[in-house]
Specification:
The chain has about 250 residues and is α+β, with helices and mostly antiparallel strands. It contains 7 helices and 8 strands. A 6-stranded antiparallel sheet has the order 1-6-2-3-4-5. Strand 3 and strand 4 form a beta hairpin. Helix 1 packs across helix 3. The chain is elongated, with a radius of gyration of 19 Å. It starts with a helix and ends in a 5-residue tail after the last helix.
């Protein structure tokens, strides 16, 4: 089961991620969704909920890519509200025509009714197609409404010890092998999930800090098991999944 804090912890970890190349709409969220190169604010929201274990099956099992479809779905589910709560999916309308232009996840609510939301595909000066994941504050005049997912009060993510952030460095099998403290963190987490990485390291179970052939093979098997892109690259999605994906019995 998933709480608002679970989703927001995933969303906050994405802050700072940008399109590559700039102004291309190409990013890890679009690649995950299967629609890269398109406006991606709704795809970003879908990603955060999916990784946290609470998918929003609005147009596909992964989520949605078009904001008005999200509005319609929440209304059909009778989960559409005019006042926000933390964890709501907030839809914004820039022109006042009643059609959703942009979407984010409510992180906090201010006394004046404005909300702080974590959003994809935004930037200062380009509100709904700016190419970045950012934390934004937006007033009541642009708030179209709020979709409220079916959260649980019980969390499967241990927020008492938030997992370490992706180091911002793509790790894979190279010659010579990558050796970093970040690799140790990932190895120790994978060992705790039951994966066998060999011997050596402080635990004697393979937490050596060296991303070797065995790590490469384990990562690809893990990616296949969790429905991720099977490329043997320890990027942000595979890193997050090591802490957040359900453990297969």
């Amino acid at each position: 089961m998933t709480t608002p804090q679970d989703v927001l912890s995933i969303a906050a970890r994405q802050i700072g991620i940008t399109e590559s190349p700039p102004d291309s709409n190409m990013n890890k969220f679009g690649a995950w969704y299967g629609m890269n190169g398109v406006p991606w604010c709704a795809i970003f929201v879908s990603y955060c909920f999916s990784v946290a274990g609470l998918r929003l099956p609005i147009t596909t099992e992964k989520g949605f890519a078009y904001c008005p479809f999200g509005v319609d779905w929440f209304k059909d589910q009778r989960r559409w509200f005019n006042t926000p709560q933390v964890g709501d999916v907030v839809f914004y309308n820039w022109s006042g025509d009643g059609i959703a232009d942009h979407v984010g996840i409510v992180e906090s609510i201010n006394a004046d009714g404005s909300v702080v939301s974590i959003e994809g595909n935004t930037d200062i000066g380009n509100e709904g197609n700016g190419g970045k994941v950012m934390r934004r504050t937006r007033g009541k005049s642009v708030q179209l409404g709020f979709g409220r997912p079916t959260y649980s009060t019980f969390s499967t993510v241990d927020n008492s010890s938030i997992f370490p952030g992706w180091p911002g460095y793509y790790i894979t099998l190279t010659s010579p092998s990558v050796s970093r403290n970040d690799v140790v963190k990932w190895q120790q987490q994978m060992i705790s999930r039951g994966w066998k990485l060999g011997s050596g390291g402080p635990s004697g179970k393979g937490d050596t800090g060296i991303f070797d052939q065995r790590c490469f093979e384990v990562l690809k098997k893990f990616q296949e098991e969790k429905g991720l892109e099977v490329d043997g690259i320890l990027g942000p999605e595979s890193w997050d999944a090591a802490w957040t994906a359900p453990i297969t019995p």
